[in-house]
Amino acid sequence: MLRYIVRRLAQLVVVLLILSLLLFFWLRLLPGGPDSAICGERCTPEQRTALRSAMGLDQPIWTQYLKYLGRIVQGDFGTSGFVEPGVPALEVFWHRLPATIELTIAALIFALVLAIPLGYFAARRKGSLLDSTGVVVSLLGVAVPVFFLAYLLKFVFAVKLHWLPDSGRQGDINATRVTGFFVLDGLITREWDAAWDALKHLILPAIALGFIPFAVIFRITRGSVIDVQNEDYVRTAESKGLTTSVIRRRHILRNAMLPVVTVTGLQVGALLAGAVLTETVFAYPGLGQATQIAFQNRDYAMLQILVLASAVTYMLVNLVVDLSYALIDPRIRTR
Amino acid sequence: MALLSVQDLSVKFKRRGLAPFDAVDGVSFDVEAGKIVGLVGESGSGKSVTSLAIMRLLPKRGNTIGGVVDFDGTDLLRIPMSQMRDKRGADLAMIFQDPLSSLNPVVPIGLQITEVLKRHRGMRGAAAENEARDLLDQVGIPDPTRRLHEYAHQLSGGMRQRAMIAMALACRPRLLIADEPTTALDVTIQAQILSLLDTLVHEHGTAMIMITHDLGVVAGLCDEVNVMYAGRTVERADRYEIYAHPQHPYTNGLLASIPRLDSPPGERLHPVPGSVSDNIPWASACAFAPRCSNAIGDCRQQSPEFKPAPVGRDHLLRCFNPVEPEAVGAAAVQQMATSPIPPPSNKEQLS
């Protein structure tokens, strides 16, 4: 098991190297560049050349890449140009990471807590009102674009009804920072108002971001439970007179969860992309918003660290999914 | 008074746009404590549906069940589901055909046994685990301590079925239903499992319903035999009687289709011609008539009744034109009835 994990982590390093190379060259092939982003249209050619040489952009691209790699190894990812000008990119990254993790977790909780029970009961009462409603809603869920849903939620619940805040992570509250996870911070420091306020800021973005995962996980859970409930071993469990709750938990859900785990893992990857849209709509200061700003303004240093980080996240999530298979399914463990 | 008395049991499956299908149609039989009753027939004869109806394990929707299933004075078909759940696993238990698919692949064997003990005998923790270990030991699984923590895929076919039996017998049920318990196993393991069932049932005085398509199994094990065809019982007698005087052409066909040790080399088998799909409804004919070599005019115009057979005692038959009992030789009867189960032993070689 340990050897397996080590091998997977080694693969991760190789993928990161290749990705950093592709990313580095591809970004520099794009029209425009940090120099034009900084000095705009009004620069004289002399000013521009001076700027380029100051930023090292006049050197051959290979030299630039190798220097970049060398700096990365020392933990220097360059300096952010636009997202938080003048601050080291790595610092901006660490600073914004908790916001995105908090949002992603909230979105996942929203998706899982709704999708698994609903999927289960829809399957058990196949053809019922609950089932058909669930199927239609989940179809809508995958069909409606994230940014549209985000704007819709914001318009209805924040702008019109004023039930929930429309942007940011927290209102004007003098909250103590401990971990960077605002809800958690509020709980740790017993500043209940701060926690509650942060939570209110999370609700709409979490629903917008979690809706596609909800829809996908609901459908997979439903389909999987429909298959599993007709298995012979469920009939055996019935023939033993076990209570419905034991049959549901131990004999149906435990088996039905295998495909759900896979899909949830894949959806975490999709959440990274969704976060860019959601955070932009809700002006939520996380990595997604940083990605959007960095792209618009050619903030190379920020973009590079953000893309590499999402690759790492994606691969780690996949590793966790593969490992959790072994946890749920003994047939994989003994192989 | 019989422990279980099934009276006029019928199961109809609804079909979209068609008349309901009679999977089981007026089946009656009794099972006494300590006795083994066989239900024999080919696929689609209604034998498994009968057993699932007794256990109330048929899907809730899409079927109607009629008749009476009297278990020790209680009609199982009319008690609330919660009471039925209390009886299942405790008073009535079931063993299924394919032990691999019938065991939960992601739950250890031990837990699948202790969950029954917890549910019906209120045992907890170490007590339940010890009892589960004893049960595995009783059904002849070597090294039961280790097996408790293993999963179905780590056991051989024979051991899986032994584990299923341990599970079914965990609460000393008064009635055990075995639905083709040996069909998925190879022949040597079949014999071991049958002798194990025979021993356990007689030790505990358990009543048993044995469902099978294999007349060899019936011959070695069952006290009484019910031959089923297209949802109805077509012949019933005790095992010696039925092998000595098989009178329904279907029973006779089943017996003739079994390969025999004393038949000349190269002799072809005698299958029952046709298939279940040739059946005509019982309502106005004999369902077996299209496949029957003995069919006469009446067979396609009237439905035969289940009544005492012309030859033999306590022998019931549903046929207008029975086969002459001498058609199967006495020697064959002897061979069938005394075959092929080895002396019981719990610790024989496992595959």
UniProtKB/TrEMBL annotation, chain A:
Q: Where is the ABC transmembrane type-1 domain?
A: 97-325
Q: Is Magnesium one of the keywords? A: no
TM stretches of this protein = 9-27, 103-123, 135-157, 202-220, 256-277, 305-328
**Localisation per UniProt entry:** Cell membrane
Pfam families given in the database record: BPD_transp_1, BPD_transp_1_N
Q: Which family does it belong to?
A: Belongs to the binding-protein-dependent transport system permease family.
Mind telling me what this protein is named? ABC transporter permease
**Originating species:** Nakamurella aerolata
From TrEMBL, chain B:
Could you tell me the superkingdom of the organism this chain comes from? Bacteria
Question: Where does this protein have coiled-coil stretches?
Answer: none
Q: Which GO terms describe its biological process?
A: peptide transport
Signal peptide residue numbers: none
Q: Name one GO cellular component term.
A: plasma membrane
Give the keywords, sorted: ATP-binding, Cell membrane, Membrane, Nucleotide-binding, Transport
Tell me which residues make up the ABC transporter domain: 4-255
The protein's matches in Gene3D superfamilies, at most eight in alphabetical order, are given as: P-loop containing nucleotide triphosphate hydrolases
Q: How does it sit in the membrane?
A: Peripheral membrane protein
Q: Which NCBIfam families match?
A: oligo_HPY
Q: Which PANTHER family match?
A: DIPEPTIDE TRANSPORT ATP-BINDING PROTEIN DPPD, OLIGOPEPTIDE TRANSPORT ATP-BINDING PROTEIN APPD
Its family remark reads: Belongs to the ABC transporter superfamily.
Q: What is this protein's record name?
A: ABC transporter ATP-binding protein
